[in-house]
Predict the structure of Histidine kinase/HSP90-like ATPase domain-containing protein.
Amino acid sequence: MLAELEMPPAAVGDAQTIISELATNAVVHGDRERAEVWAYLSRHPSPRLTLKVFDAAPWRGTGGPVPADATALITGEPASDACGGRGLMLVDALTGEAGGSWGVHPTRGRLGPGPVSGKAVHFTIPLPEASAAVLSPPVPGAVPERLCELAGVRGLRALVSLGAEATVVHFGSGLWVWVKDGALLYELPGHGVVRHPQSDAVEVVEQMVRLCEEGAAGGPAPRAPSRDLC
């Protein structure tokens, strides 16, 4: 998959190392029975590959989980005789070299008999502009249905309402996505309006799931729809 995206060999190697470190961390520090690895492409703000490792270990609030590796990253290098503690330092270094980013957020699983709450450690890697050709545009008119389908897998019941200028998909808990002028728009607390191309349906639903889980954990509540978007 990575080679098909025209990624340089060095970037492919770094991505493989990062995902290996994150998967190991999930098994050692998380819930190994519900560990999942996800990958998807998006165009906003530029073509990029996102990889996530999910596990069902409890979310520890807005600060995120603090496994041994993360503690080492925050406090400095571990002792020279430490058996571990360098995994996320390596992730941070390799992701930075690739021009990407990484982090952790609450979310829900995709696999299994039903959606389970937990956390995902993720990283992104920029892709060459030519890789955008891999992202096929959605079929016109099917985008709201696609959003509902993706949300349903994650345990969110989405409702569609048709407006004069935009279609609004309501995800509950004060979460809305506007399908308008070939774009997907939503309001992100602290960041204002975020605009994605319609091909970024997976990423947009990921954000809706994250916001829903953060709200359940006492995070910032989304605002009501802006009249400027409707």
Summary: The chain has a mean pLDDT of 79.
